[in-house]
């Protein structure tokens, strides 16, 4: 069975974006980008794969991506309707009327049912790339968390999870630190 991995960047205080959805404040480091791109090249948007030296590099961990509207919107703002052409793409939103690109499927129904159906299919893993509301609604279905925790506090923004109180336990299975002070933490569901 395929697994759902929430692979996301966050601040020390638990935000994945500023209050307006921006995320340009995360301090990048060459060593971190190199390692993470080699491990999960498919998480680099199609438009940036060439400059990153990833053209033609096969997907290693994921063949499917799930996005909330807020995670999808930056691509639309750049005029890109299909940000991850090398993956099956789903946007979960109850506020979008349609998506102009047939490579991206709009899901206005229950994301839990979608994930359960996708997990039963053959293939690589499913990447939940954001956002906080979608992650909160899928918390019971998340099998793995890969949290890129950056050394920055922003005070307010979009939380990594937005959900009712219902504790879920995970085991820490890997920790790595990079030159910018960021820590990548990998957890699996207990």
Automatic annotation (TrEMBL):
<feature type="domain" description="Bacterial bifunctional deaminase-reductase C-terminal">
    <location>
        <begin position="3"/>
        <end position="183"/>
    </location>
</feature>
<dbReference type="InterPro" id="IPR002734">
    <property type="entry name" value="RibDG_C"/>
</dbReference>
<protein>
    <submittedName>
        <fullName>Dihydrofolate reductase family protein</fullName>
    </submittedName>
</protein>
<dbReference type="Pfam" id="PF01872">
    <property type="entry name" value="RibD_C"/>
</dbReference>
<dbReference type="InterPro" id="IPR050765">
    <property type="entry name" value="Riboflavin_Biosynth_HTPR"/>
</dbReference>
<dbReference type="InterPro" id="IPR024072">
    <property type="entry name" value="DHFR-like_dom_sf"/>
</dbReference>
């Amino acid at each position: 069975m395929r697994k759902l991995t929430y692979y996301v960047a966050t601040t020390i205080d638990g935000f994945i974006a500023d209050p307006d959805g921006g995320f340009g404040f995360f301090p990048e480091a060459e060593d971190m980008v190199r390692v993470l791109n080699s491990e999960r090249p498919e998480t680099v948007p199609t438009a940036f794969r060439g400059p990153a030296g990833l053209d033609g590099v096969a997907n290693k961990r994921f063949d499917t991506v799930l996005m909330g509207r807020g995670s999808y919107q930056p691509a639309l703002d750049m005029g890109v309707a299909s940000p991850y052409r090398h993956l099956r793409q789903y946007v979960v939103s109850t506020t979008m009327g349609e998506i102009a690109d047939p490579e991206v499927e709009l899901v206005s129904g229950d994301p839990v049912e979608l994930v359960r159906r996708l997990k039963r299919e053959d293939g690589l893993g499913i990447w939940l790339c954001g956002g906080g509301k979608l992650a909160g609604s899928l918390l019971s279905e998340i099998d793995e968390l890969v949290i890129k925790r950056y050394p920055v506090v922003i005070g307010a923004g979009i939380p990594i999870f937005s959900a009712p109180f219902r504790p879920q336990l995970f085991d820490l299975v890997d920790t790595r630190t990079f030159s910018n002070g960021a820590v990548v933490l990998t957890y699996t569901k207990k």
